[in-house]
Each structure stands twice: as C-alpha cells, then as structure tokens.
C-alpha cells in the first residue's frame, strides 16, 4: 500500500522550520538565517521513498504584519493550513507557553487535521526546561504526537519522520521519483543569495532586501551565467550592502556562488548589482513583479 500526503510546518518565526525541512531532505532548499521572517514563499518539497511520498509546505512564520509584504506572508501561512493531511507545529523549549504560540494554536483549535507538537532546539536547553515545555503545551492543546527534537543535529528527526509516515493516507505518487521541489531553480537561487545577505548585513538592512534574477542561462559546457539585481529601500542601505571597496557585496557573491554551485551541480558565474527602490515592500505592482501575490 503506497501512502502519500501533504504536510505543513507552522510556528513562530525563527523556531527552526526551514532547518528541520532541510535536515529531512538532505538538501539546502529553504533559506536558513538567524533573523526572523526570512521565508517568504511557501515551498513544496517532495520526499519520495518506495513506500510513501511526503509533500512539505514550508510556510512563512505567522506574525503581526506591518506592511503589504508582511500581509502576504501571513496570508500564505494561513492558506497552507487548508487541505493538508498533517500539521507540524514547531516551537522551542521556553518552559511556559509563548504568547505567539498561543495565538497561533487558538486559530488552529477548530481544524480537524492531525497536529504534532515538535519542540525543537532541545540540544540548546536543559532537560527540565524541555520537560516543562512538553507538559505545558500538552495540557492546554490537543496534539496527536509530542516529539522533542534537535533539527540542526538531527536528534529524533528519524522518529518524527516515522510517525509522520504512519499518519499519511493511502494515495498516489503526485510527483516523479527524482523530483525534490516544484519551485523553479531561479527561485531557489534567489533565496540562496538573499540568505547570504541576511547573514552578512547589519540589522537595519535585511528585511528591506529583495533579489530579482535578471538572467540565468547555461552554456554548452554546462556553466551558468546568473545576473541579479539586489533591491534595497534606501541609498544608505546600498552603501552598506556594497561595503568598503565593494568587499561586503563580494563576500555575499562568493558565499552565494558556492551554495548555488552545490545546488545546480555546475560551475556558476554570478554577477550582482545593487539597486534602490524606495518602499518596495509597500508597492503592490513591484511585489507582483517579484512573484508575491498581494491583496487587491
């Protein structure tokens, strides 16, 4: 009996949703950054074995939106809860229930879909704090399974995947065996570049950054040429991104190219230009150009 189904990962920003997805897949498919609200689009990632196929939807973290891009991110997160077979609710050991978690879980109370509580980052906390967290959440909300894990180290992730498999319904193979994501290569490449910028830039810049791939072509030898506009909101941000003598932009490009070459399994010539588009996050037409479907 072959099983298949759709799984959504949800939780506060920066609890490790993308890290967990990346560990399960063994591929760097979702942007990972120490800054919150870094995942902007829901990414379908496909895990296929001889017995089952899991299609993951990695959602942006739920948060209070402050601009149109934020509204889009929250809408995507809520839409991802519809018509899935399993919800993984991810949190971290804080001892008591976090207010952000409480708000999210109250919104999920009426949804009749199996939900697992996944307490991540147990390697960074004491056993007592982990136990207190498991007990607090388990008492207040109804979960089908409660599993403590370390996504970054892979602790208990195999147990989680086994329990997820049991929850999948009997179903068809939705995607070919060798397909790991339905996201275009261009999008994954742009996310890799944005991740490097998030890691290297100062606090006031990152969420005002977008990456627009102008050209991505492959020559007869298999080498890619990728030309990119990195969009920021202020002239002062442009200077920070470029850095003294262009050093910051050079490092962003160098680190991004290394990961892009691993992802594409090919040599890459990467060119990045920095451009200013003031208040682009509140510009519906420009957001649409970048692939974000905003409210009318």
From TrEMBL:
Residues 37-41 are annotated as: G2. It is a peripheral membrane protein. Residues 58-61 are annotated as: G3. It is found in: Cytoplasm; Cell membrane. It comes from the Bacteria. Its main location: cytoplasm. Pfam families: KH_2 (PF07650), MMR_HSR1 (PF01926). Residues 201-278 form the KH type-2 domain. The keyword GTP-binding applies. GTP binds at residues 11-18, 58-62, 120-123. Keywords: Cell membrane, Cytoplasm, GTP-binding, Membrane, Nucleotide-binding, Ribosome biogenesis, RNA-binding, rRNA-binding. Residues 3-170 form the Era-type G domain. Signal peptide: none annotated. GO terms for molecular function: GTP binding; GTPase activity; ribosomal small subunit binding; small ribosomal subunit rRNA binding. Residues 149-151 are annotated as: G5. GO terms for biological process: ribosomal small subunit assembly. PANTHER family: GTPASE ERA, GTPASE ERA, MITOCHONDRIAL. Monomer. An essential GTPase that binds both GDP and GTP, with rapid nucleotide exchange. Plays a role in 16S rRNA processing and 30S ribosomal subunit biogenesis and possibly also in cell cycle regulation and energy metabolism. This is GTPase Era. It comes from Clostridium cadaveris.
């Amino acid at each position: 009996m072959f099983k298949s189904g759709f799984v959504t990962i949800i939780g506060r920003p920066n609890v490790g949703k993308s890290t967990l997805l990346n560990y399960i897949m063994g591929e760097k498919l979702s942007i990972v950054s120490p800054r919150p609200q870094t995942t902007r689009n829901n990414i379908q990632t496909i895990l296929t074995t001889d017995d089952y196929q899991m299609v993951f939807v990695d959602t942006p973290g739920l948060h209070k939106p402050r601009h149109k891009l934020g509204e889009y991110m929250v809408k995507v997160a809520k839409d991802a809860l519809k018509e899935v077979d399993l919800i993984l609710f991810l949190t971290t050991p804080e001892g008591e229930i976090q207010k952000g978690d409480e708000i999210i879980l109250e919104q999920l109370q009426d949804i009749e879909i199996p939900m697992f509580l996944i307490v991540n980052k147990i390697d960074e906390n004491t056993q007592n704090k982990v136990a207190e967290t498991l007990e607090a959440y388990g008492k207040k909300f109804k979960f089908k399974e409660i599993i403590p894990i370390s996504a970054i180290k892979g602790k208990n992730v195999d147990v989680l995947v086994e329990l997820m498999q049991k929850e999948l319904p009997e179903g068809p193979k939705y995607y070919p065996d060798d397909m790991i994501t339905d996201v275009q290569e261009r999008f994954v490449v742009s996310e890799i570049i944005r991740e490097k910028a998030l890691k290297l830039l100062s606090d006031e810049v990152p969420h005002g950054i977008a990456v627009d791939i102008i050209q991505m072509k492959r020559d007869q030898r298999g080498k890619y040429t990728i030309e990119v506009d990195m969009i920021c909101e202020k002239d002062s941000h442009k200077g920070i991104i470029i850095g003294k003598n262009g050093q910051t932009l050079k490092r962003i490009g160098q680190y991004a190219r290394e990961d892009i070459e691993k992802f594409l399994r090919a040599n890459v010539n990467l060119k990045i230009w920095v451009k200013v588009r003031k208040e682009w996050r509140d510009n519906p037409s420009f957001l649409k150009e970048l692939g974000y479907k905003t409210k009318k």
